[in-house]
Write a structure and sequence with these properties.
By secondary structure, this protein is α+β, with helices and mostly antiparallel strands. It has 2 domains: 99 residues, no CATH class; 116 residues, no CATH class. It contains 6 helices and 9 strands, in the order H-E-E-E-E-E-H-E-H-E-H-H-E-E-H. A 9-stranded antiparallel sheet has the order 1-2-3-4-9-8-5-7-6, sandwiched between helices. The protein is globular, with a radius of gyration of 18 Å.
C-alpha cells in the first residue's frame, strides 16, 4: 500500500475510535434535550433499511450515518434532531471527517421558498465546502437594495442563494429580522431547502446550551419565514 493511503487509513481509524467516545457524550446531551422539549428519541437509524423520514439538506449522502435520531412536534412544527457523521477522502488523499448536529423544521407555508444557505462567518470550514460543489449556482447575496442592514449581522453572517433569487431573499430576510439573527443565532448556520429549515452545528462538542440556542433560533426563524413569505 502507498504511504499516503496508509497514513490516511490510520487517520480515519483514529477518528472512528475517538468518535465512539464523543458519540456517547453527544448522546447523553441529546437524550436530555429531547426529553425536555418533548421529542421522541430513537437512537441510531440506518438510511438504507429503517423506515424513517431522512433529514436531507446538503449533508445527506449515500455514506452518512445518523445517530441519536429524535422526532416530535412543537408549536405545530414537525421537528427532527439528528447527529450526523460522514467521512470521505479529500483530493490529496487525506481523510475528512465531519460531524453535524442538525435540527430540521418542516415549514408550514405552501409557497415556494428559495434555496438559501445562511453561513456563520468563520465557520465556512470543510464541513460546509461541499454545499458549493453540490450547488455551483450559489452566490453571495449583497444586501442593501431596499434598506440598510445591521453591522452586527453583516460581520457575523453571509447568505448565499441563486442570483435569480437574490431580490426575493432580501425581501424574505429584511433588516429587522437580521438584527435578531445577528444577536441570537450565531455561531450556527442554516439551510432553507424544499420546505424545510435545517440548523447546523459542526462543533466537536455540544451542550444543553448549544441545542437550546439552535432550537430557539430555529423555531423563531421558521416562524419568520412562514409569515414573511406570505408578504412578498
Amino acid at each position: 500500500m502507498k504511504p499516503s493511503f496508509i497514513a490516511s487509513f490510520k487517520q480515519l481509524s483514529h477518528n472512528v475510535i475517538h468518535n465512539i467516545s464523543a458519540n456517547r457524550s453527544r448522546g447523553r446531551v441529546i437524550k436530555k434535550f429531547a426529553k425536555r422539549v418533548g421529542l421522541i428519541y430513537f437512537g441510531a437509524v440506518n438510511q438504507h433499511d429503517d423506515e424513517h423520514q431522512i433529514v436531507r439538506g446538503f449533508t445527506v449522502s449515500s455514506t452518512h450515518h445518523d445517530n441519536h435520531y429524535c422526532v416530535g412536534s412543537v408549536d405545530n412544527y414537525d421537528i427532527t434532531l439528528v447527529d450526523r457523521i460522514d467521512a470521505n477522502f479529500g483530493a490529496d488523499g487525506s481523510a475528512i471527517f465531519n460531524n453535524w448536529a442538525i435540527l430540521s423544521f418542516k415549514l408550514q407555508t405552501r409557497q415556494d421558498v428559495p434555496h438559501i444557505f445562511i453561513n456563520a462567518n468563520d465557520h465556512l470550514s470543510r464541513a460546509y465546502n461541499n454545499i458549493f460543489k453540490i450547488y455551483p449556482t450559489f452566490n453571495l447575496v449583497k444586501f442593501g437594495t431596499f434598506e440598510q442592514y445591521d453591522l452586527e449581522f453583516n460581520s457575523r453572517f453571509n447568505i448565499f442563494a441563486s442570483i435569480v433569487d437574490s431580490i426575493e431573499v432580501e425581501r424574505l430576510i429584511p433588516a429587522s429580522s437580521t438584527r435578531v439573527l445577528g444577536a441570537h443565532f450565531w455561531p450556527y448556520s442554516a439551510e432553507i431547502y424544499e420546505g424545510y429549515l435545517f440548523v447546523y452545528c459542526d462543533s466537536a462538542r455540544i451542550s444543553n446550551s448549544t441545542l437550546d440556542t439552535m432550537f430557539e433560533g430555529g423555531l423563531w426563524l421558521a416562524r419568520h419565514i412562514d409569515s414573511q413569505i406570505e408578504l412578498i
